[in-house]
Amino acid sequence: GLFPGYYEPVLRGARAPDTTYRWPLYGRPGDLIDVDLGDFDPDLKGKKVTGRVEGTALVPYPDRAAIDGGALDGKGLELLWVDDAVERFFLEIQGSGQIRLADGTRTRVGYADQNGRPYRAIGKDLIEIGAIPREQMSMQAIRTWLEAHPADAPGMMARNPSVVFFTERKDLAAAAGPLGAQGVTLTPGRSLAVDRKYLPLGAPIWLDTIAPTPDGDRPLRRLVVAQDTGGAIRGPVRGDLFWGAGPDAEFLAGHMRSPGRLYLLLPRSLSPTT
Fold first, then answer.
1. Among 42, 170, 211, 213, which lies 20 to 30 A Cα-Cα from 34?
2. First vs last Cα of the chain: how many Å apart?
3. What is the pLDDT of residues 56-98, one digit of tens each?
4. Angle between helix 139-148 and 85-94 (nearest 10)
5. d(CA 189, CA 252)
6. Which of 175 and 137 is assigned the larger pLDDT?
7. Predicted TM-score (pTM) above 0.70
8. Which of 190 and 229 is assigned the larger pLDDT?
């Protein structure tokens, strides 16, 4: 399967907007409704739709273009404000991060929910339009293109209609890691995000893949634990490896998209089922 990586970015932010801090991080809207379709039809167990009620109908929640255009204005959902729309975009993809405030303190934001729209990897779009060669594609390459094309960047980012809503994790010290879907602190290089449809949280997994270091690709074979999930992680042999925070973690996460294998480790007392 395929094994990308992710990390915890650090953004500059403030608790009130001004001419520098103009891009809001939103909390979960109160009118956001998640519907488990399995409650209505057993054949749809594990599937859900997300939206909001208009009149007597459940309709899709606004997409990225609508939200950036003001669809959530006046609802009091702004948690924090950051100084860079591109960095905010990548924060949503990573799912959690740290915000460095002007007074030098830091706070952490974590995933609360998303608007129900499907995630779209804009790297594929940039390859298709010839903006970035396929062999040079990375998170860093996408960021460089977006920063170099400020007029086109909003439209390109809007191709990904999925928007993540955050919660501020004031109970966690800045030195601790982010919380994963399992509710425990993620460990750099050891926590794996998986598709819960196929792999259970908390399961130990032997990972055999490749790490793209600055000095070249190196084999990566180690024990990891399934402790998180992600909107872009789909399939039984797929995992997103958490690398932590800082420049080294950003490099590894941005360049890792490695083929590999995973081995699910189960107690002898259990009988695996397909």
1. 170
2. 17
3. 999 999 999 999 999 999 999 999 999 999 999 999 998 889 9
4. 160
5. 10
6. 137
7. yes
8. 190
